[in-house]
């Protein structure tokens, strides 16, 4: 079975940083594009960042220049370094596996979503 286990969330002050991790299992991690999604309180899912199987990356405009997505294929781990965090970054963050079918978020299809990790940015 596909499993995506995210961790690293917490409470941080504005301007601070966090690093999220997502350990994947049950599929050939290196062959698939992966993404971080987030859901702020009372809002829908939003794409944050993508990384392709060739390490090309793409970011939502709201996080460009502050967040960095990366992957460690040897450890089947997806990472998200988040710097200069702002209150509007408060959300549950999910790692997600891109697929040919499944849930559509911002025009991209995801067939598996992890359980999420809460990031709260507040003073």
Give the helix proportion (percent range): under 10%
Average residue pLDDT? 96
Give the biggest beta sheet: 7 strands, mixed
Multimeric organization: single chain
Number of helical stretches of at least 4 residues: 0
Rounded Rg: 13 Å
Give the structural class: mainly beta
In percent, how much strand structure appears in the residues? Answer: over 45%
The span between the termini is 40 Å
The total count of strands amounts to: 11
- Basic shape: globular
SSE ordering: EEEEEEEEEEE
In the predicted model, the low-confidence regions spanning at least 5 consecutive residues are none
Report on this model:
This protein has 123 residues and is mostly beta strands. Helices cover 0% and strands 57% of the residues. The protein has no helices and 11 strands. The strands form 2 sheets. Strands 2, 4, 5, 6, 9, 10 and 11 form a 7-stranded mixed beta sheet that branches. It has a 4-stranded antiparallel beta sheet with strand order 1-3-8-7, with no helix packed on it. The radius of gyration is 13 Å and the shape is globular.
Brief description of this entry?
The protein is mostly beta strands and 123 residues long.
Topology:
Elements: E1 3-7, E2 10-12, E3 18-25, E4 34-39, E5 45-51, E6 57-59, E7 67-72, E8 77-82, E9 91-105, E10 108-113, E11 117-121
Parallel strand pairs: 2-11
Antiparallel strand pairs: 1-3, 3-8, 4-5, 4-9, 5-6, 7-8, 9-10, 9-11
């Amino acid at each position: 079975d596909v499993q995506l286990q995210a961790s690293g969330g917490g409470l941080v002050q504005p301007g601070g940083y966090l690093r999220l991790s997502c350990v994947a299992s049950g599929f050939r991690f290196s062959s698939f594009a992966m993404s971080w999604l987030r859901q702020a309180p009372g809002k829908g899912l939003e794409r944050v960042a993508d990384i392709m199987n060739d390490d090309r990356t793409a970011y939502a405009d709201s996080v460009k220049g502050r967040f960095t997505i990366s992957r460690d294929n040897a450890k089947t781990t997806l990472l998200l370094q988040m710097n200069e965090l702002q209150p509007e970054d408060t959300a549950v963050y999910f790692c997600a596996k891109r697929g040919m079918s499944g849930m559509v978020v911002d025009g991209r299809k995801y067939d598996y979503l992890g359980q999420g990790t809460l990031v709260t940015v507040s003073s």
